[in-house]
Amino acid sequence: MWLAFGLHPYSRSLQDFGSMGNLGGEAIMVKVHLDTDLGGDIDDLCALALLLSWPGIELTGITTVGDDTGRRAGYTREALRIAGRDDIPVAAGADMADGYYPYPLGLPDEARYWPRPVPPAPGPVEVALDLLKRSIDAGALVIGIGPYTNLRLLDERYPGTLARTNLWLMGGYVYPVRAGFPQWGNDMDFNVQVDVRSAQHVFEHGRPSLTPLTVTVETSLRRACLPALRASGPLGALIARQAEAFAEDWENETRLALASPGLPDDTINFQHDPLTCAIALGWRDGIEIAEVPLRFEVRNGLMREIVDSQGRPTPVVTRIDGMRFSDFWLQALDSLDSLDSRSL
Asked: Fewer Cβ atoms within 10 A, N terminus or C terminus of the chain?
C-alpha cells in the first residue's frame, strides 16, 4: 500500500534522517522521546499511534506536560496498554497546579473519550525530567508536541542540556497562513503562547527545528477516515471514538472547515502533532524545510519569531501537502492491528 506514493516512505524517511541503516549487518534503531500533553486535543493520541506504528524506532520514554495531577500520564499509559506497549516508561511532568500556565488547560469528559475509568499516574516532576535526560543521554531525538515547560525545567535542572539535544517542536509562527486555511494569528500558537517563559528559554538555549502552526493548519483528520480507524485495531478504534466526541464538542466541520476552502468539508480536527512526528523522523513527501534566521522577542505578552538576517539559523517547515500527509498517516495506522493489543 505504501507504493501509492512511489517510494516506500519509511525506507526513504529513515534513510534521510540518518538513523537507520546497517552496521555490521545489524539494524540501527532510532531512539525517540515524546514530550506531550496527551489527553486534551486528540492529535496527541494520533501522534502516539503514528510513532507506535513506525518501524525501526525505540520510544525511550514519554513525559507529559501541562498535566492535571497525573491524569495526562494516566491517559498515556492507558493508550499504551491498549496498544500492547505498556513497556514504554511514562512520567508526569509539569503540572497545572504549579502555576506555569495563565489559565486551567482543562481536559474533556473522560467517560465520553475513554472506554473505562483511567487512574491518574501522578509523580514528582523531577522523575519526568530525569527520564527526559536519560533519553537525551542515550542519543534520543526529542519530539515536543505540547507546551515547552518540561524542556525549560530540564535545562534549569541540568544546565546546557538543551544545547546538545536533537529537538523537534510543534509550534512557532514564522510566515502567514496560506489562503484557504484558517487565518489564525500567532496568539493561536498554543504550545508557545501558553507558556511564553518556557518558549523563550527553549528558543534561546536550544537548537530546535520547528513545525509551525501556520503549516499544520493545512492538515486534517476527516470523518471519512473513521471507518478505517475502527478497523485498524484497538488504538485506532479509540482514536475514532475520541474523534466522534471531539466533533461534537468543537463542531469544526461547520465552524472551521466550511469557512476554509483549503480543508476537506468533513474536517474534525487538525493533525498538528502527527505531522510534526513524521517530519522529525524524516518524512518528506510534499515537505519543504528552510533554514530561516530568527530573532525571538516577547511583545505584549506574546512570543514572536521574527525573520532577521542577524538571527539564529533555525530549520523551519515552510510548506506541506496536507492531503498527502493525511493519507500517509491513515495508512500507517493500518499496521496497528498487528500489534499485540488488548480489546477495548
From this structure: N
Q: pLDDT tens for residues 45-96?
A: 999 999 999 999 999 999 999 999 999 999 999 999 999 999 999 999 999 9
What values do phi and psi take at 27, rounded to 5?
Answer: -70, 145
Average pLDDT over residues 129-147: 98
Question: 3-class secondary structure for 246-315?
Answer: HHHHHCHHHHCHHHCCCCCCCEEECCHHHHHHHHHCCCCCCCEEEEEEEEEEEECCEEEEEECCCCEEEE
In a domain, 266, yes or no: yes
DSSP 12-24: HHHHHHT---EET
- CB-facing half-sphere around the CA of 100: CA atoms within 13 A: 28
Q: Say which DSSP state 336 is in.
A: G
- Determine the structural domain holding residue 263 and report its residue range: 28-338
Bridge partners, residue 204, by sequence: none
Tens digit of each residue's pLDDT (9 = 90 or more) over 185-197: 999 999 999 999 9
The answer to whether position 15 is within a domain reads no
- Taking alpha carbons only, the member of 208, 330, 337, 231 closest to residue 274 is 330
Asked if residue 3 is part of any domain, the answer here is no
DSSP code of residue 216: H
- CA atoms of 113 and 77, how far apart (whole Å): 15
Q: Are 74 and 105 in contact (CB under 8 A)?
A: no
Q: Identify the burial level of 335 via C-beta atoms within 10 angstroms of its C-beta, where 0-12 means exposed, 13-18 middle and 19 or more buried.
A: middle
Take residue 120 and report the three cell numbers written for it: 491518574
Q: Mind listing the pLDDT tens digit for each residue in 261-288?
A: 999 999 999 999 999 999 999 999 999 9
Number of domains in the chain: 1
- Which helix (H) or strand (E) segment holds residue 141: the answer is strand 141-144
User: Does some domain include residue 278?
Assistant: yes
- How many beta carbons lie within 10 A of that of residue 19, not counting itself? 19
